[in-house]
Write a sequence for this structure.
């Protein structure tokens, strides 16, 4: 199960991002073993919140048992649109459920969607957007600032 961890450890890169699709538990576990930091991207859907709870419990269990893998956890609230009722309540629900886990919103931004579609980094496409501000805060947390 540490194969991905071993493969990443041999590379001379500062950051690897493992974007794991939901319900792919085997891939999630491999990524959590290989990672130093776990960012759990969720939206306001109840199943996403429930899934994040299971992953957080697994990560905390691995940390407690001093196993290799992610040692820091944060939740990234993606596609956040405060006009939708579930999205309005999401930060408070998550703070209540996971009081010790940092929460980072990534607000819905058409520039982010456009940059993604054009395969251009958002920091180049629209550097002064709310999405860049949100993503910068996440990067600073990862860097320990």
């Amino acid at each position: 199960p540490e194969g991905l961890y071993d493969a990443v450890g041999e590379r001379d890169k500062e950051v690897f991002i493992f974007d794991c699709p939901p319900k792919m538990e085997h891939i999630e576990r491999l990524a959590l073993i290989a990672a130093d930091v776990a960012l759990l991207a969720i939206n306001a859907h109840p199943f996403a919140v429930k899934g994040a709870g299971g992953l957080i419990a697994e990560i905390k269990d691995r940390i407690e048992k001093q196993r290799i893998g992610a040692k820091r956890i944060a939740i990234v609230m993606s596609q956040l649109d405060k006009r939708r009722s579930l999205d309005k309540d999401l930060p408070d629900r998550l703070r209540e459920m996971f009081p010790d886990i940092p929460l980072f919103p990534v607000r819905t931004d058409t520039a982010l969607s456009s940059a993604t579609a054009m395969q251009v980094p958002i920091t180049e496409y629209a550097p002064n957007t709310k999405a860049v501000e949100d993503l910068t805060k996440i990067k600073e947390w990862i860097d320990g600032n």
